[in-house]
Amino acid sequence: MKSDKLYHDPELAQFYDLENEWSPACAFLLKLAADARSVLDIGCGTGLLAATIAADGTKRVTGADPAQPMLDIARQRQGGDQVTWVQSDAASLNLNEKFDLILLSGHAFQVFLTAQDQLALLKTIERHLAEGGKFIFDSRNPKIKEWQEWNPQESGRTIEHPDFGAVNAWNDYSFYPQQMIVEYGTYYEVIADGRICSSKSRIAFPTQEQIAALVAQAKLHVNHWFGDWQGNPYHGDAVEIIPLGSWKAGL
Ligand SMILES: C[S@@+](CC[C@H](N)C(=O)[O-])C[C@H]1O[C@@H](n2cnc3c(N)ncnc32)[C@H](O)[C@@H]1O
Predict the structure, then answer these.
(1) What's the gap in Å between 177 CA and the centre of ligand 1?
(2) Interstrand relation of 38-42 and 60-65 (parallel, antiparallel or unpaired)
(3) Methyltransferase domain: which residues (predicted)?
């Protein structure tokens, strides 16, 4: 898989936490993690969720991500020393450990662009899941076409950066319907000097049916399909596709 500058460039990684705060998804996942003795966060990014899950000191928590700058932030955050951070992409992750809960948050599932990449991730989940363990991830429902809002007009925002001061931010996108891939640009313009940091990222928008087929192929089982982080069931017009599953039937 091609590495994404948005996560691999130290300057761009500095913007991640400014743009992504604690969310209803984090609250849902923190609650789900309450019963787990061990948690694996794949594509953990800057580690806010993993460090919060680990904060009570009762769980073994591992966060895995291929992007060094994201993990550097994760290590330095409050509670970061309670988590084992592993620099690895999902496909080649082999920890020789099993986990009660394996999660991907913040739509990390969508960075896996092809069915082959998605299947490799799901097989990694299957390899690391303890008997009776659970897995969960989220993917934006392609039917909602959320990317249409990622245009410069609607996405324009101002961010206060601790070192650069005020920064104008915006996105743009191209949609490739045949592959159901969206390429989106992220732009940060430092107002003080006009300097622009930018990246082009690609994410996939598989359907619920496609995800279900791959989950089954990886010998995993979905027990609940949620359609949002309030815990409502998935339906065709739901904003999110969120499978909560296990190694075998029954949670
Ligand atoms: C949208 S961010 C989500 C970060 C974090 N989970 C959150 O909720 O804030 C996607 C993350 O997936 C990571 N990633 C990209 N390719 C990956 C891969 N092949 N395996 C595992 N993680 C990957 C990126 O480095 C990035 O940190």
Answers:
(1) 23
(2) parallel
(3) 39-133
Mean pLDDT in the chain?
96
Confidence of residue 12 (pLDDT cuts 50, 70, 90): very high
Domain residues of the chain, as ranges? 5-142+206-246, 143-204
Q: What is the pTM of this model?
A: 0.97
Q: How far is the CA of 166 from the centre of ligand 1 (A)?
A: 26
Q: What is the pLDDT of residues 157-198, one digit of tens each?
A: 999 999 999 999 999 999 999 999 999 999 999 999 999 999
How far, in Å, from the CA of 193 to the mean position of ligand 1? 30
Q: Nearest residue CA, atom 22 of ligand 1?
A: 43
How far is Cα 212 from Cα 242, in angstroms, rounded to an integer? 11
Residue 214 has pLDDT above 80, yes or no: yes
Structural class in CATH, domain 5-142+206-246: alpha beta
User: Which residues lie with the beta carbon below 6 Å from any ligand 1 atom?
Assistant: 1, 7, 20, 42-45, 49, 65-67, 70, 89-90, 105-108, 111
Beta bridge mates, 65: 87
> Of the candidates 97, 92, 86, which has an alpha carbon nearest to the alpha carbon of residue 121?
92
For residue 167, which amino acid is it?
Answer: V
